[in-house]
Amino acid sequence: MQETADRRQETKRIGGERRAGDGARIADALKRRGRIALRVQGTSMLPWVRPQDIALIRQTLMENVRCGDVVLFRRENRLFVHRIVRKQGSLEAAQFLLKGDAHPTADGILRKQELLGRVVRIYRNGRRIDLDAPGQLALGLFISQLSLHSRFWYPAAKLVAIATRPARRWLHALHVSVASVR
């Protein structure tokens, strides 16, 4: 009976992980294999990274990340996939500020030991989005600057998204029905 209760406690969601021990297991797997694919569960990176997207993450060092990159980091045994929105300091002593695109405030400075990897690709609805492509790198940098000021624009964007949802669903249904006729 106690064993079942322990398992239930372990399977309770914390942060974006499915179970309390997932953070350590994912970090270990990434260290062993050099890359890992994870299904996005949270909404902190909306609208750019969406729940149910598959993120391919490669292990990386602090020297290999830049402003605009989306990274996986571990803080207090919880995993986060957030964007680097600002670089401070010199090349040798650079500090990176992290933030979820949809969050109004930043997460703080990324410490070297917290960085696990960088998201290099996203799979969404059968599409592959390569974050290392030149256009995606530029978009990531643009989004990082936009994200710094999201507390001003995100509430309005969310309201527009909610207000236009019925029209978007109708258009999507129309597109699907037209495609099935062909």
Describe this structure in words.
With 182 residues, the protein is an alpha+beta fold. It has four helices and eight strands, in the order ααββββββββαα. The longest helix is centred in the C-terminal third of the chain and has 32 residues. It is globular. About 8% of the residues have low confidence.
What topology emerges from the helices and strands here?
Elements: H1 2-11, H2 22-33, E1 35-39, E2 54-59, E3 70-75, E4 78-88, E5 95-99, E6 108-110, E7 115-124, E8 127-130, H3 134-148, H4 150-181
Antiparallel strand pairs: 1-2, 2-7, 3-4, 3-7, 4-5, 5-6, 7-8
Question: What's a quick, concise take on this entry?
Answer:
It contains 4 helices and 8 strands; from the N terminus they run H-H-E-E-E-E-E-E-E-E-H-H. With about 180 residues, the chain is of the alpha+beta class. Strands 1, 2, 3, 4, 5, 6, 7 and 8 form an 8-stranded antiparallel β-sheet that branches.
